[in-house]
Design a protein that fits this description.
Distance between the termini: 53 Å
Radius of gyration: 19 Å
Helix content: 10-25%
CATH topology of the largest domain: Nucleoside Triphosphate Pyrophosphohydrolase
Structural class: alpha+beta
Order of helices and strands: EEEEHEEEHHHEE
CATH superfamily of the largest domain: Nucleoside Triphosphate Pyrophosphohydrolase
Length: about 230
């Protein structure tokens, strides 16, 4: 598409919303209501509102809430995607964010909201596939040395459940002993006194929750969860 002098640049935000469903890392896609690509599945996104949004993060949080009803416990800027070929309407800039949310907070009966495994995505409009790939790389890298995956957990969880979340995000098994050591080093969780997981045949497991000081920030360690040597 050839640009003309004075043509406006499209400025928007897109959000890669990740969750776990059936122990698989998934991304939330919405059915587009308008052209271009009406009816196609795409990332939650929208225009920045200059009179309403103080910064791009405000726009991302607003778009996410307006389109899914979710206030994500963790939302972080990812990267900027731009150029004349990413949107058929013209030269565009998209500031991408990623967010993590427990599955139970997602709309469960909305046909326009699809939760799909990251390894089984359909063809996507714009450059949304590229944005998702960059988000997955960032999340997997950051999960190696931080408390990031805990934002995929429900409010209360056991340590085996937390380990399975890390394994689903990283796509590889983690040694139980080293994982417990890293969790202790991160200091991100606290035991719920007297609260145990019930309803299992084996011995009830202690329930934990994320410490209040890490509900809007990450705990970090120098060496990765699955570091060798």
């Amino acid at each position: 598409m050839r640009r003309t002098e004075g043509e406006s640049v499209i400025c928007s935000v897109d959000v890669v919303l990740l969750t776990l469903r059936e122990e698989r890392l998934c991304v939330v896609l919405l059915k587009r209501e308008r052209e271009p690509f009406a009816g196609a599945l795409a990332l939650p996104g929208g225009y920045i509102h200059p009179t309403e949004d103080q910064h791009a993060g405000d726009a991302a949080a607003r778009v996410l809430h307006d389109k899914t009803g979710i206030v994500s416990p963790y939302l972080e800027q990812l990267a900027t995607f731009s150029g004349p070929g990413r949107d058929p309407r013209g030269w565009s800039v998209a500031i991408a964010y990623y967010a993590l949310v427990p599955d139970h907070l997602l709309p469960q009966d909305d046909p326009d909201v699809q939760v799909l495994p990251v390894g089984s995505l359909p063809a996507l409009p714009f450059d949304h596939r590229d944005i998702i790939e960059v988000a997955l790389s960032r999340v997997r890298s950051k999960s190696q040395y931080s408390s990031l995956p805990v934002y995929l957990c429900p409010e209360r969880f056991t340590l085996p459940q937390l380990q399975s979340v890390y394994e689903a995000v990283l796509g590889e098994p983690i040694n139980k002993v080293s994982f417990r050591r890293k969790v202790e080093e991160l200091g991100m969780v606290e035991a719920l006194a007297g609260e145990m997981e019930q309803g299992r045949a084996n011995r009830p497991a202690q329930l934990y929750r994320l410490r209040p000081e890490y509900r809007r920030s990450l705990s970090l360690v120098e060496r990765g969860i699955n570091a060798r040597g």
